[in-house]
Write a structure and sequence with these properties.
This protein is of the alpha/beta class. The protein is built from 12 helices and 19 strands. The strands form 5 sheets. Strands 6-5-4-7-10-13 form a 6-stranded parallel beta sheet, with helices on both faces. Strands 14-15-19-16-17-18 form a 6-stranded mixed beta sheet, sandwiched between helices. Strands 1-2-3 form a 3-stranded antiparallel beta sheet. It is globular and about 70 Å long.
Length: about 450
C-alpha cells in the first residue's frame, strides 16, 4: 500500500468520530485522494522511454545540465516528494517552503512558513531563497515551480518601503472590507515584490521554467502570487479597480500613510522558455472522488455548485437552498427503490484568502445550515482538503439535522493529515431515502 503523503488518513484515530451509518469519513477520504498532490504532480512529471515530460513539454534526455525545484504551499511536501521520485538523479537542487515538516526522503533545504498572508520573517526568508535558487540557473537548466494554496506567503515580498507587517495588514484590511479570496490574491500579486508577478521565473535568466499547480478555485495562474507568469494588463487594471473600490478613491493606506498602488510600468515580458502554468488538481477532482464513492455505495450524487461564493453563513444559505431545489426537481433521488438516498456536493473557499485556515469557518457554516435543513436525518459534512495537524481542530466536521423533537447531536470529527493537497473546502449533504422507498 502506498505510504506516501497520499495515505496519511487517521480515520481510526483516538478521539475521532462520525455520525453512525453515514458516508462522512468515506467522502473525506475519497475527495482528498482524488485530488492528491503527490499523484497529481507525478502525472505532470515523469520519465518514459528516455523522454522527460514536464507539464505540457516533452524533452528527450539528456536535456538539462541542472534541474531544480521550488515547492511552496500547503501541499509543498507532497509535491516535492513527487518530484524527487519522478526525476530521481536528474534533480540536482531544491528548496521547499511549507507549513509543516516535509518528508525525510526529500533531500533539500526547507523552511516552515506558517499559514496566512505574506510578510512573515520565515516567508520573506523563503522568498529570497527561491530568488537565489532561480538566479543561479542559466541556459540548459530547468526550474520546476511546485505551487499550492498558501505559496503566496513564501513568494511575495512587501512593496518597496513597506515592512512585512504593514503589507500583511493592508491585505487583511482589504479582505475585511469585502474583497473576495481571488481579489486579495490578485492585489497581493500586483503589489508584491520579490517572486510574485513572474518574479521567480524572471530571475531564472536563460533557464526553462515550468509550473505545476494545485488550484483551489481562484485561478491556477494566480496561485502563489503568479511567480511563474506575468500578470496580464487586464489583471493589473482589475487590481487597481479593487484597490480604488476598497479605499473610496484614496490610494493612501490610512494605517501607514503610505501609497498603496499598482505600479504603472509592468515588468518586462518573460522569455519564451517560461511555460504556462499547468494545473494538475483542482476542486472538480475532489468532487469527482466524493461522487464516485457515493455512487459506489448506491447513493445518487448531485452537484450543488463549484466555488460557492460568500462568507460561511452566505454559503450555508445558498447550499441549503440549492439542496432543496435539487430534491424538488428530482424527487426520484429519494424514492428510487435501488437507492440509499442522495448526496449533494459543492466546494467553496468561504472567500478566505489563499493559505488561511478554513477550519473555524466550517463551524459557522454548519451552525447556520443545520436549522435550514428540511429533510429529517440529513447528515451535513464540511471539510478542508488542506487537513490539520494531529491534536488540533479536525479538518472536517459532520452534523445531523435535528430530529422531530428538536433535538440534535454534536459534531462528528473527521480528521485528515495536512500536506496531502489543498483544493478548497468540500461540502456534502447525505439525504436519506423517503421512508418505505427501499426494496425489502
Amino acid at each position: 500500500m502506498d505510504r506516501s503523503p497520499s495515505f496519511p488518513f487517521r480515520v481510526n484515530e483516538k478521539g475521532s468520530s462520525e455520525p453512525k451509518g453515514t458516508l462522512s469519513a468515506g467522502l473525506v477520504r475519497s475527495a482528498i485522494t482524488a485530488a492528491d498532490a503527490y499523484h497529481a504532480t507525478r502525472s505532470g512529471l515523469r520519465i518514459e522511454a528516455g523522454v522527460l515530460r514536464i507539464g505540457n513539454r516533452f524533452r528527450k534526455l539528456p536535456a538539462y545540465r541542472e534541474v531544480a525545484i521550488f515547492a511552496a504551499g500547503n501541499a509543498a511536501g507532497s509535491q516535492a516528494l513527487a518530484a524527487t521520485h519522478a526525476l530521481g538523479s536528474l534533480l540536482t537542487q531544491g528548496f521547499i517552503a511549507a507549513p509543516e515538516a516535509i518528508p525525510r526522503e526529500v533531500p533539500f533545504r526547507s523552511v516552515r512558513v506558517a499559514r496566512g498572508l505574506p510578510g512573515s520573517r520565515e516567508g520573506q526568508e523563503a522568498a529570497r531563497a527561491a530568488l537565489e535558487l532561480a538566479e543561479g540557473l542559466g541556459e540548459r537548466d530547468l526550474l520546476v515551480l511546485l505551487l499550492s494554496s498558501g505559496a503566496l506567503a513564501s513568494v511575495a515580498l512587501p512593496p518597496v518601503g513597506w515592512s512585512g507587517t504593514e503589507f500583511a495588514g493592508a491585505l487583511d484590511r482589504l479582505h475585511r472590507r469585502g474583497a473576495s479570496s481571488r481579489e486579495v490574491l490578485l492585489v497581493a500579486s500586483a503589489l508584491g515584490t520579490g517572486g510574485s508577478d513572474g518574479g521567480i521565473a524572471g530571475a531564472a535568466r536563460g533557464a526553462e521554467v515550468e509550473s505545476i499547480v494545485l488550484d483551489r478555485g481562484d485561478g491556477g495562474g494566480l496561485v502563489g502570487g503568479s511567480p511563474g507568469r506575468r500578470l496580464t494588463e487586464g489583471e493589473r487594471d482589475e487590481a487597481r479597480q479593487i484597490l480604488d473600490r476598497s479605499s473610496g478613491g484614496d490610494p493612501t493606506d490610512r494605517s501607514t500613510s503610505k501609497p498603496l498602488r499598482v505600479p504603472d510600468d509592468p515588468p518586462p515580458p518573460l522569455r519564451a522558455s517560461v511555460g504556462r502554468p499547468v494545473v494538475v488538481a483542482s476542486p472538480p477532482d475532489a468532487l469527482r472522488g466524493a461522487a464516485d464513492l457515493a455512487g459506489d455505495k448506491r447513493y445518487r450524487p448531485r452537484l450543488a455548485g463549484v466555488g460557492l461564493p460568500g462568507s460561511p453563513a452566505e454559503v450555508a444559505r445558498s447550499f441549503t437552498k440549492r439542496l432543496d431545489e435539487l430534491l424538488e426537481k428530482e424527487p426520484g433521488l429519494r424514492t428510487a427503490p435501488d437507492s440509499k438516498g442522495a448526496v449533494i456536493l459543492a466546494t467553496t473557499t468561504f472567500e478566505l484568502p489563499e493559505g488561511f485556515d478554513e477550519r473555524p469557518s466550517l463551524r459557522v457554516f454548519l451552525d447556520t445550515a443545520r436549522p435550514l435543513l428540511r429533510h429529517r436525518g440529513t447528515t451535513l459534512v464540511a471539510f478542508a482538503t488542506s487537513g490539520s495537524e494531529p491534536g488540533a481542530e479536525p479538518a472536517g466536521l459532520a452534523v445531523v439535522a435535528a430530529g422531530r423533537d428538536g433535538s440534535s447531536s454534536g459534531y462528528g470529527r473527521l480528521p485528515a493529515s495536512p500536506g496531502i493537497t489543498d483544493v478548497a473546502c468540500v461540502l456534502a449533504a447525505e439525504v436519506p431515502p423517503v421512508l418505505g422507498s427501499r426494496r425489502r
